[in-house]
């Protein structure tokens, strides 16, 4: 990923997060693979890490804890789907569909 693309993503992410449009900046590879609650948590983590005032940003320990929680959300959704015989993808965020809404 180029430096320009990273800068653009970091500038646009908080706006997308607050408008509920994270699907517009998430890698298409994740389409149908990430649980909505997990995506929301990842967005929250990123917004907090991008705060202008460093004192308002989370500690690395806090980031790790939040990432572990996001993973638990994803794994929990996957386990629920497996228990009922699904693939775990049917209620995941369909990012391509969301992109079409933007």
Structure explained in plain terms:
- This protein is mainly alpha-helical.
- It has a single domain, classed as Transferase(Phosphotransferase) domain 1 (Transferase(Phosphotransferase), domain 1), CATH 1.10.510.10.
- The protein has four helices and no strands.
- α2 packs antiparallel against α3.
- It is flat, with a radius of gyration of 15 Å.
- The chain starts with a helix and ends with a helix.
- The C terminus is likely disordered.
- This is Receptor-like protein kinase FERONIA.
- InterPro entries: ANXUR1/2-like.
- It comes from Morella rubra (Chinese bayberry).
- Keywords: Kinase, Receptor, Transferase.
Helix content: 55-70%
Question: What Rg is obtained from the alpha carbons, in whole angstroms?
Answer: 15 Å
CATH first level: Mainly Alpha
Poorly predicted spans: 95-102
Shape: flat
Query: Biggest β-sheet: count, sense, barrel?
Result: none
Average pLDDT taken over every residue? 77
The CATH homologous superfamily is termed Transferase(Phosphotransferase) domain 1
N- to C-terminal separation?
Answer: 23 Å
In total, how many domains does the architecture comprise? 1
- The helix tally amounts to 4
CATH topology: Transferase(Phosphotransferase), domain 1
Would you tell me the structural class of the helices and strands? mainly alpha
In CATH terms, what is the architecture? Orthogonal Bundle
How many β strands by DSSP? 0
> How large a portion of the residues is in β-strands, by DSSP E?
under 5%
What is the string of helix and strand elements?
HHHH
